[in-house]
Specification:
The chain is of the alpha+beta class. A four-stranded antiparallel beta sheet has the order 2-1-3-4, covered by helices on one side. The termini are far apart. The protein has one domain. A hairpin with a 4-residue loop joins β3 and β4.
Length: 78
């Protein structure tokens, strides 16, 4: 099983948490395609929260190479 990491930065729409919040999550998967699917599902789940304005994530292999950048941005409410 290969180890991947997902570096996630999220920005909320309002409140004290409008500064970017960052974290790194481990992903254990047998193949790149499974790791990509898990990363996409995690980002979509986060972005489904209405309080999140932006999610930016980098899926990296164990050697540090970036496999994919995933970004979701919500239009600001006027």
């Amino acid at each position: 099983m290969s180890n991947y990491s997902l570096f996630v930065e999220q920005v909320h729409t309002s409140g004290p948490s409008t500064r970017p919040h960052q974290r790194t999550l481990p992903i254990n998967a047998l193949t790149d395609s499974i790791a990509l699917r898990e990363a996409e599902e995690y980002v979509e789940g986060l972005f489904s929260l209405s309080t999140i304005r932006q999610v930016r994530a980098h899926l990296c292999r164990a050697d540090g190479t970036v496999l994919r950048e995933i970004m979701r941005t919500r239009d600001p409410v006027s």
